[in-house]
Amino acid sequence: MKKLEIYLQVLQAGQHERKIILKTIEELKSCTPQELSENRLLVAAVYCQLLQYCQSMYEGNVPQDIVEELLQTFENIEQIGVEATKKERYDSNLTTVWFLHELKIHGKTGDVWRIEDELLQNSIQILIQELDNIYFVFDIKENEQYFFPIHNMIAKVVERPEFVDINNPLGIYQIHILQLAVRLFVNSEDKQKILQTLIDQCNLRFIKYLNTSGYIIDTLDLLNYQKNGVMIFYDAMTNKVLVRHKSREYFEGKPLWEIDGVTIEEEKDYHRNKIGFFVEYDLEKSDSLEDHSDILKTEEGRQAFLRLFFDKRAYNILFEYSIIKKADGSLLPVNPFCYNDNKIVKGWLKNKTGTIYEKEHLIDALREYRSSALKVCKECVMNRVAFGLAIMLLQNENVGVNGLGVDELNSSEWYQSQVLKNWVEHCSDSVEALTFIAGQWQRENEYCAITYKKNKNSREKNIEEHEIEPLDFYPLKSDNSWMYQIIGCKNPTGWYVLHGKVQEDSEGKFILAVDLVSDVVGKKFSQDTEMTQLLIDTEVLDDPEGLIEEIWGSGDEYYLLYNNKKQSGVVCNQTLLKMLSALEKTQSKNYLTLETASEISRTQYDDIVDMMLLQRAALEEVGKRYFCDFDSQVYYRLIHNLLWSEIDKVKIGSYLKIFMHHQKLKFSEINRDEKFIRKDVNTLYVPKDGRESDSVLTSIYETYLKAKSVRESNDMYNYMLVLKEDGFYYNDNRINNIVFLCDNFECGSATIRMLKAYLNLDVTDESEKRKVEQVRASRQKYFIKQNGSDVAPEQRVEVPLESVIKKNNCTIEIHGYYGTEIGKKAVEDFLNEQHINSGVVSYERQITKQATQIMKEVKEIWPHFAPKANVYTVVREFNMPKMNVFPVTMLNNPKMAICMFVKKDEIKKSQK
């Protein structure tokens, strides 16, 4: 069956040749019944791909001899669909073969309309996509009869009175049958009349929207129709929208915007019973249908989305093309009555299935957008507020988007704090609102309070081990005095939220002994007042809620607000005070003030973005579930790294100097380097390691060097050589020169090991020997062609490069795209020591940045880490170099929030 897999790949490549069709058919015919049965998914895939290949190659007019071959082949394989398991029948290719078999069998018996298998009916949406690509098979006739009489099946089904009936509401199967009918009845007058009858007599006007220029705005399984009972049709040719529902009440409310001339129309069955209702309206020429994912790409779009959802209450707008974008940038839902929908549907038109969310779980449906910025300050790029926070607040209490005050935010304070304050002030109960945000904030950011775990068995969250996840509250050091003002503290800086335990004194009075040792705010109070003990008579405490009226004994714990100047305290809402106390603890360990963050200029931030973009693929691979754009990911990782590194106003300059002292090693222009484009046909260009090593060089080759438009004629990883009398040949050319290619070399040690590995040079030092063996295991290996062709891996004979050099009397070159003078001299000295006098060492671009100039700053920021001073400070595309000045903790796992760059583990192979 290996050949079938190869033919499948060839068919998918789409290089049209008649012989490919015939060879594929021959291979399918040669399969035994047992082979067909055991590999039915593969067989179905090959046959369906073959049909698509034929339709594409011949544009539907497939030659008769090939048609006959295809039919004979089908008769050999058609039973695979019948014997398939229920799970296998969800495979689109197998479903197609099964459906064609059913059509053929029922066609012969004359009852083609009786295909009533429930699983097959549920697969109609799959068939709609698949059958479009093989429609020519439905024109095939045998003895003047259609071989696959799908037209007859659809015609019989549609014209049956019960197809449209009050007792049999239109469902997914009926809608998809009508879609097939519209597409297949194009040139059939008698069958077109059936559809026209449904339009004229039953007023099923949506049928007109099922043509090639129209579509249903829903997922293929019509999930919106299933859960909300509504269907939305759009025709791009007429620029019209039709919204259908089975209930008239759905349309009796006021639409979300004024629509001229819209009336509620009725659908009826053949007995004049009402079966559904619809409205139809025209879009303006300048209107465009958008998906929420496009809208949410910008700050302006995110704010407009919030207004659409929370101000207009247009909830169900998360499926493709469900939003109208007007010429002025304002948004409207394509369904003006969507406020009646009970569920939120998320999905795309071509998706087989969508996802359902309750309205209150909108924030989960928009997971990848939560951490993105709702608004970024122009004066300070680090000052921003999260889109997810706005959703969270408005879902808790919808005060209207204007209530967040996004348009009035000022740069002198964290945007996040201002939005929180604005929302609380607009809520119906400010204390309850404050309790909500204090609790949410503390729970979401509590891991930031611990930079390193002191106890390995501790269950506490830790910022170093914290994996990326949706973030609504950015972990920022904030001035929360406004919270105390909300509670009623007129001079909030003089108030403390303290925690104490009730004690009974010798006179029987109850005293509240405040914790000034383990409680964070208690410690601060003690430092500010120089008091080592605070005992408060409970009788002098203000107790507006009567919380301590009936104390029964010692041990009860209370939170209170205390003002030392007035020597008075208040015991009030314990939940709120507990949350505020916990939040103060988290905030006390946070150094990221606005003053500190403001030191990061837009230019410096953009430089960090550029550095991280070099390793975008690795970061986005793990971040795509949580970030809708790369800027959101950069900001997320940067603020966590700042917190983990404990960067304050004093350290921020050193921190930035470290990053700015890094050279960016980009390879986008490597295809201008003569050595890397491998121009000389008599040169064997040897990559420093093999393709399977997943090295930077392999990534560079696949991204920038490998031909994309044609088949690669000079593959850098082609390992086959030919041995002739006068020496070794590569691609029919004698090898006169060997160039070892490196993406970069710095000190030269790795390049020297590469040469030792490739040239089998003697190594006496045991430590060095192990390292060379690792390099040898991952190197590019070369083999001799036998009789002009490749052989099975186990029969290959490896050719050591020193044999090629000796036999051909080759010259040698070592070339790096990036390099240093120190590294170049080290390699040259090594070649001289080995008496390889013809060796030439070169590089295209020079690495200049060294760590010696920033070692003081590195030790100041990361005192637990001691990098070598002779390291070159570079951020390299695709992967960080082994030697660098960053702690390995912030490089080794992009799942971690503090990870800024990625250093992949090397693939270690054992020598066989």
Characterization of this structure:
The protein is α+β, with helices and mostly antiparallel strands and 912 residues long. The chain has five domains: 2-148; 223-365, no CATH class; 370-479 and 593-653, no CATH class; 492-585, OB fold (Dihydrolipoamide Acetyltransferase, E2P) (Beta Barrel); 670-848, no CATH class. Helices cover 38% and strands 15% of the residues. The protein contains 33 helices and 30 strands. The protein has a five-stranded antiparallel sheet with strand order 3-4-5-7-6. The protein starts with a helix and ends in a 36-residue tail after the last strand. The relative contact order is 0.05. The model has no long low-confidence stretch (mean pLDDT 88).
Say how many strands there are. Answer: 30
What is the mean predicted local confidence, pLDDT? 88
Count of all domains? 5
Based on helices, strands and strand pairing, what is the structural class?
A: alpha+beta
pLDDT under 50 segments (min length 5)?
Answer: none
Q: Largest beta sheet, briefly?
A: 5 strands, antiparallel
Helix content: 25-40%
Rg calculated over all Cα atoms: 36 Å
Give the terminus-to-terminus CA distance.
Answer: 30 Å
How would the global form be characterised? flat
| Spatial strand order of the main sheet | 3-4-5-7-6
Q: In what range is the share of β-strand residues?
A: 5-15%
Helix count from the secondary structure assignment: 33
How are the secondary structure elements laid out?
Elements: H1 2-13, H2 18-30, H3 33-38, H4 40-58, H5 64-77, H6 79-82, H7 92-109, H8 118-122, H9 124-132, E1 141-142, E2 145-146, H10 150-159, H11 172-184, H12 189-202, E3 214-216, H13 223-228, E4 230-235, E5 240-245, E6 265-268, E7 274-282, E8 288-290, H14 292-295, H15 299-311, E9 318-319, E10 323-325, E11 331-333, E12 344-347, E13 355-357, H16 362-365, E14 373-376, E15 384-386, H17 387-396, H18 415-426, H19 430-445, H20 481-487, E16 495-504, E17 510-514, H21 520-529, E18 535-537, E19 557-563, E20 568-570, H22 574-588, H23 594-597, H24 602-613, H25 616-623, H26 630-644, H27 652-660, E21 663-665, E22 683-687, H28 696-705, E23 720-724, E24 727-730, E25 733-734, E26 737-744, H29 749-759, H30 766-777, E27 783-784, H31 801-808, E28 811-819, H32 821-833, E29 840-846, H33 855-861, E30 874-876
Parallel strand pairs: 9-12, 21-30, 22-26, 23-27, 26-28, 28-29
Antiparallel strand pairs: 1-2, 3-4, 4-5, 5-7, 6-7, 8-10, 10-11, 12-13, 14-15, 16-17, 16-19, 17-18, 19-20, 23-24, 24-25
